[in-house]
Write a structure and sequence with these properties.
The complex is a heterodimer of chains A (265) and B (281). Chain A has a domain of 156 residues: MetI-like fold, CATH 1.10.3720. Chain A starts with a helix and ends with a helix. Helix content of chain A is 74%, strand content 0%. Chain B has 2 domains: 37 residues, no CATH class; 234 residues, MetI-like fold (Orthogonal Bundle). Chain B has 281 residues and is mainly alpha-helical. Chain B is 79% helix and 0% strand. The chains are: A mainly alpha (265), B mainly alpha (281). At the A-B interface, helix 1, helix 3, helix 4, helix 5 and helix 6 of A face helix 1, helix 2, helix 4, helix 5 and helix 6 of B.
Chain lengths: 265, 281
């Protein structure tokens, strides 16, 4: 190795360490702030306390917002898993023209401005006479979750060896049986990771939801920003810590069953 | 081949439900929005909404700021992500796990939480200012919140994993024998990097940059919390025009402009990626 190479390599490691700090730092700060006794965000906290967790119970509408967000996220992920898996199988296994266009189209909402999609859906729902906020949110969130499913399943299906299904059929399984016993377990890691990220994306969505909520139906991110405007105290850090815990849990489940490295593929 | 084709055609029906769904609840509403942006006072086509947008220096200023912030965010993210992807590809054991967690955990946490964290860090009595003063770099707190650099740093932080992961995906596939071969043939490390490594990792860079730029150009939560109303971005202006000003004509024209930028990036990057893939075959 020449001196330049060694220098480049050392610099890369320094940058990578800085990146790890840069990415995890804000999360650590949020958790630390949530345990402060002070009502402002002084760091380090003057004293440790759980008062902001106790304050969570007094936040009006918080439980409703969490419950609404969970409902919408779970249901939209389930719908997207069904629609997305079918579409991904069609793209990978089909021989018809325009398969690549279908794949690009199904993944494209990821890169479209969420706010614009939200505005368009607001006007579309209004035009169609749909006034129910809950249903509007669910219908819209499938557009959020579907790209995650399609993207991951496309990659997983490209890797899947479909001769296994033929082999299972030769061994006496019917086609549906073969799909259930061979294809479904083979795709399980993809279902899990794409489902996790789809769920979390729906839980986090702000720009589409903001146009579809009404006074009684506010999702968690919208409620959080509202709290922040009304009373910017560390209760929000306590809510955030809860969400970080949820993310850690999702990560633990994912890395246990799939492995961290495969989760990012 | 003919048999395969007819048999394979049945698969198109599997894609039908998803296509119908996205057609009705994504493509059609966006098309109607575009139509609306081109009609004014019952007239179609009318450029009134666009004339209102492009004829006003205030709006053009916001458009320029939005694009500039997105470009700088993409550049900062790329600068940090490129070396990190190489380290991640080379790292093993605990180091690899640590970097992977640093990538995936923030992805799973969500924008609102991370932006909230940055709004704490950037406060004038916040951790960053205390550190700067403690190190003796500045005497008085620097104003960070409500500034453009703060917005770019927070945005690069939120979008960074989306830049690292596509580059990591191609770096992992990189055949290191090619680099060695270049060295054996007398290439200097710099030359080998520019002629061999850089072209091979370009698809990851293009994919990551397109993704980060398209998200940065339309971000809403991050600028609302970090810079506020004082220096708006296009997405904030769109939200305002619908939620507060009730000016749907202007709102739909601005939405169309933002949509055009995003579509250009999506189509441009996928065409570029196809060309890069074709060039290697």
């Amino acid at each position: 190795m020449t001196a330049i190479e060694r220098l480049a390599r050392a610099a890369s490691w320094v940058i990578a360490f800085a990146v790890v700090l840069f990415l995890l730092g804000p999360l650590v700060v949020t958790v630390v702030v949530s345990f402060t006794s002070s009502s402002i965000y002084t760091l380090p906290p003057p004293e440790w306390s759980l008062r902001w967790y106790q304050a969570l119970a007094r936040k009006t509408g918080l439980a409703d917002a969490v419950w609404l967000s969970v409902q919408i996220a779970v249901l939209s992920t389930v719908v997207a898993l069904v629609l997305g898996t079918m579409a991904a199988i069609a793209v990978v296994r089909g021989r018809f023209a325009g398969r690549e266009a279908i794949a690009t189209f199904a993944v494209s909402p990821l890169m479209m401005p969420g706010l614009v999609v939200g505005v368009a859906l607001l006007q579309g729902f209004r035009g169609a006479g749909l006034r129910d906020a809950w249903l509007s949110l669910l219908l819209a969130h499938v557009v959020v979750t579907l790209p995650f499913i399609v993207r991951t399943l496309l990659a997983a299906l490209e890797q899947f060896d479909f001769t296994q299904i033929d082999a299972a059929r030769t061994l006496g399984l019917s086609y549906p049986q073969a799909v259930l016993k061979v294809l479904a377990p083979g795709l399980a890691p993809a279902f899990l990771t794409s489902g996790l990220f789809a769920f979390l994306a729906s839980m986090d969505n702000y720009p589409i939801s903001i146009f579809l909520t009404d006074a009684r139906h506010k999702t968690l991110p919208i409620k959080m920003l509202q709290y922040l405007e009304e009373q910017p105290d560390p209760t929000l850090a306590a809510i955030s810590t809860g969400l970080i815990l949820l993310a850690l849990l999702a990560l633990a489940v994912g890395s246990r069953s799939v492995g961290l490295n495969r989760m990012v593929q | 081949m003919q048999v395969l084709r007819t048999r394979g055609d049945g698969f198109v029906w599997l894609a039908a439900p998803a296509l119908l769904y996205l057609g009705l609840l994504y493509a059609l509403p966006l098309a109607l929005l575009l139509f609306k942006s081109l009609s004014a006072g019952g007239q179609f086509p009318s450029w009134a909404g666009y004339a209102e947008f492009f004829g006003d220096a205030f709006h053009l200023n916001i458009l320029w700021r939005t694009v500039r912030v997105a470009l700088l965010t993409t550049a900062l993210a790329l600068l940090l992500a490129y070396p990190t992807a190489f380290v991640l590809a080379r790292a093993r054991g605990a180091m690899q796990t640590l970097i992977l967690i640093a990538m995936v955990l923030p992805l799973a946490v969500g924008v609102v939480v991370k932006t909230f964290a940055w709004s704490i860090l950037f406060r004038s009595d916040g951790l960053l200012n205390k550190t700067l003063i403690g190190l003796g770099l500045v005497d008085d707190p620097v104003r960070m919140l409500f500034t453009e650099p703060a917005l770019i740093i927070a945005a690069a932080n939120v979008f960074l994993p989306f830049m690292v992961l596509p580059i990591y995906a191609v770096v992992r596939q990189l055949d290191h024998r090619l680099v060695e071969a270049a060295a054996t043939l007398g290439a200097t490390p710099l030359h080998g990097f520019v002629r061999v490594v850089l072209p091979l990792t370009l698809p990851g860079v293009v994919a990551g940059a397109a993704f980060v730029f398209s998200m940065a150009v339309s971000m809403y939560v991050i600028p609302s919390l970090i810079v506020g109303e004082r220096s708006q971005t296009l997405a904030m202006l769109i939200a305002r025009s619908y939620l507060f000003l009730r000016d749907e004509q202007l709102g739909s024209s601005m939405s169309a402009v933002l949509l055009a930028i995003a579509v250009t990036v999506v189509l441009g990057s996928s065409a570029l990626l196809r060309r890069l893939a074709g060039g290697r075959r």
